[in-house]
Amino acid sequence: MNVKTNLEEITTKIAAACARSNRSEETVSIIAVTKYVSIETTKEAIEAGVIHIGENRDNGLLKKKEAIEDNATWHFIGSLQTKKVKSIINQVDYLHSLDRISLAEEIQKRAENKKKCFIQVNTSGEESKHGIEPEQVIPFVKALIDFPSIEVVGLMTMAPYTEDDALIRNCFRDLRELKNNVQALGLTYAPCNELSMGMSNDFEIAIEEGATFIRLGTSLVGKEF
Fold this sequence. Notes:
Elements: H1 3-20, E1 29-33, H2 39-48, E2 52-55, H3 58-67, E3 73-76, H4 85-88, E4 94-98, H5 101-110, E5 115-120, H6 137-143, E6 150-156, H7 165-183, E7 194-196, H8 203-208, E8 213-216
Parallel strand pairs: 1-2, 1-8, 2-3, 3-4, 4-5, 5-6, 6-7
């Protein structure tokens, strides 16, 4: 597994997807999802030029962050239990899984400064996926006015794992439209400029539909355990 080579191939695909959708490549950031790889491979990704590192388990993130001295930007992309907020929230730059008021309350209690959060939305309707329902997004955003430590920087979703590109595209398009609706509210605490969507199997479609952060694991860093 050569992360640098993988990154070069991915960058080429990003450029093509951006060209198809009349976007600049600079508007797309890669998050290396390092859940299944070692600290050494994570360092390799950083050395290759990836500055965003994503983990979905608190212990994995804390171990890697402690061991890696490089100036990485840390993303927590998994569902976050309320009881884990204390240990994780001040160790990350972005949280991609804000989906309930009880979590917002705990973040407000524990955060030492304003935290950049994505609201996780279940655009696919799958019971196996976390996130709030699309129709709950606007009321949820409005309710977050009471939590000054939270900045809603964007929305996040996961499309179904399927070969049906139209279904995948619809999930991403729905999230983009929701983002536009949030932006239209004009709330200072919810600029909602970002879209966290697209993984190894569907990131090109996500980019075509407006993704600004794509979360890549196996295609970029592989899977070691």
